[in-house]
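ok trying this again, last paste got cut off
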Amino acid sequence: MPMDPVGRFLTALDPEQREAVGAKPRQEQERLAAAWERELESDDELDTLDELSPPAAEAEAARRVMDRGGD
């Protein structure tokens, strides 16, 4: 399992999004990964999901970040 935030973020994405984000410059990947980490930390619903299934919580946070365009 990747330990760096970008690697963990890429792992949480669905395959199509993973390919698209993987093609972006490293700086953009880092920006998206930081937004993903903020989403994981700030959303109480994800905390509950994380207790049940950490990969599902990470995937949901990644989906939200990508839906918002990484903001």
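PB: full thing came through this time. The first helix runs from residue 5 to 12.
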